[in-house]
TrEMBL record:
The lineage of its organism: Bacteria, Bacillati, Actinomycetota, Actinomycetes, Sporichthyales. Pfam families: His_Phos_1. It comes from the Bacteria. This is Histidine phosphatase family protein.
Amino acid sequence: MSTHTIVHLVRHGEVHNPEGVLYGRLPDFHLSELGRKMAERVAESFAGKDIAAVVSSPLERAQETAAPVAAAFDLPIHIDERLIETANYFEGKTFGVGDGSLRRPTHWPKLWNPFRPSWGEPYVKVAQRMLDAAAAARDLAPGHEIVCVSHQLPIWIARQRIEGNRLWHDPRKRQCGLASVTSIRYEGEKIRGLSYSEPAADLVPIKPGKGFSAGA
């Protein structure tokens, strides 16, 4: 008989980022006060579940999100480099529609191919490393549930691959909110299902006219 295992891919909580930079893999970006509340809410959402292992991206915001879960189940936090945020040319810069970035000639060579994408780590590479990390987490505790804390884009790309969708996409349409949980259900080594929840949705601040804040 197949072993039923669930790997929960958790996006970290809100980050303290007053300058509004794309922080990517930069060090020393920590959860805000609200982000810490989100992390606590995620831990509460796992109460009564069979969490047998906690794994995190090496970045501080992910480990800080994992900490309440690990504490609640008296577990160590394992670090898996494959759960890290994607590499990005615009790391450390402000970059968005309306800030003039698209008009800067120095940026144009990095914007020519949105399908790869040309500005960062290839989507196919992100998908493979995330699925490898999820499989490694599954093998830590077969028959149980494992929490892996990562980042929005890697989690979304993993979901796109699992669901058989194209990897290039409109970032505004990602279903991967702050402190959200994307759960992969395995039977043995086969993926048999996927579900999504937002245990901290009511904590996400609403910007006038823009709906829920996407965070970073």
